[in-house]
Amino acid sequence: MPINIHKQLPARQLLKEEKIFVMDEDKAILQDIRPLSILIVNLMPEKERTELQLLRLLGNTPLQVNITFLNMASHESKNISKNHLDEFYKTFEEVKHRKFDGMIITGAPIEHLPFEKVNYWEELVAIMDWSKKNVTSVLHICWGAQAALYHHYGIDKHELSKKCFGVFSHQTSDSTVKLVRGFNDEFNAPHSRYTSISVEEINNNPELTLLAVSEDAGAFIILSNDEKHIMITGHLEYDATTLAEEYQRDHAKGVEVDIPENYFPNDDPSQAPLNTWRSHTHLLFSNWLNYYVYQETPYEWE
């Protein structure tokens, strides 16, 4: 949240130079506060797990947030009961008349498919196009980030020689940008994907800024210059054990997969992994909600 201080306080200019969020008393008096409305397009197969992971993060700020979950009407979910979807989820047809302050589009384990071959691609495109005028800021995660880069900016994904799987070190390019405010210069984040995005294509696109990158995992945090879209290519929302469960699941199925890198102590799958990315996860979600949603969204949508 911003700090509210007098216009003439000597420290004010120094704080602004350091990019600390300062609000004048006059503006603070005029501020109206209401709950934020966040739409979560949950594309993950284990929807209840993803719900918990995201709600834990969205609930860790001083802001009141009203959540609406969205399910793809053009896709039949196999890992969740119909009763759960009927009770807790909406379809796009049911919400497209509304305005939302923020939206999250999750990842999905379908990266082996060309985007146009995904059975709900047309519906997702309609949602992404609708969001341009009906959502203040959109946070895209993993495959959702790749889908946004492809649809909005024409940047396609490419297959990796092996799965990007583990916890990797990342560096920020500009610590004064609001989204990564408070981040360490180097921080960890988990990845689990078979495809990636070209760093060169992102850097060459005049509409995008690469905020964080990993020498091993590639592009990580991408921000559109109009601050409308935030693309996160990894899974900061993952719990400490999520990669372990993915590894054990694939291993049990006979899928050839390496042990997640930099994850298990001593690379020993029998040992409990540690969550070394939690603080930056909370910080990113808090920064997104505050700077890109709460501070930018109109009090009353026209």
TrEMBL record:
Q: Which UniProt keywords apply?
A: Acyltransferase, Amino-acid biosynthesis, Cytoplasm, Methionine biosynthesis, Transferase
| Pathway in which this enzyme or protein is active | Amino-acid biosynthesis; L-methionine biosynthesis via de novo pathway; O-acetyl-L-homoserine from L-homoserine: step 1/1
- According to its UniProt record, where is this protein mainly located? cytoplasm
Q: Which residues, if any, are the signal sequence? A: none
Binding-site residues for substrate, renumbered to this chain: K163, S192, R249
Which leading EC class covers this enzyme?
A: transferase
InterPro entries (UniProt xref) = Class_I_gatase-like, HST_MetA, MetA_family
Which chemical reaction does it catalyze? L-homoserine + acetyl-CoA = O-acetyl-L-homoserine + CoA
GO molecular function per UniProt? homoserine O-succinyltransferase activity
Spell out the residues of the site Important for acyl-CoA specificity.
E111
> Mind telling me which Pfam families this protein's record contains?
HTS
Name the EC number(s): 2.3.1.31
Q: Where in the cell is it found?
A: Cytoplasm
What residues sit in the active site? C142, H235, E237
Site description Important for substrate specificity, residues in chain: S192
Q: Which PANTHER family match?
A: HOMOSERINE O-SUCCINYLTRANSFERASE
**Family assignment from sequence similarity:** Belongs to the MetA family.
User: Its biological function?
Assistant: Transfers an acetyl group from acetyl-CoA to L-homoserine, forming acetyl-L-homoserine.
What protein does this entry describe?
A: Homoserine O-acetyltransferase
By which gene is this protein encoded?
Answer: metA
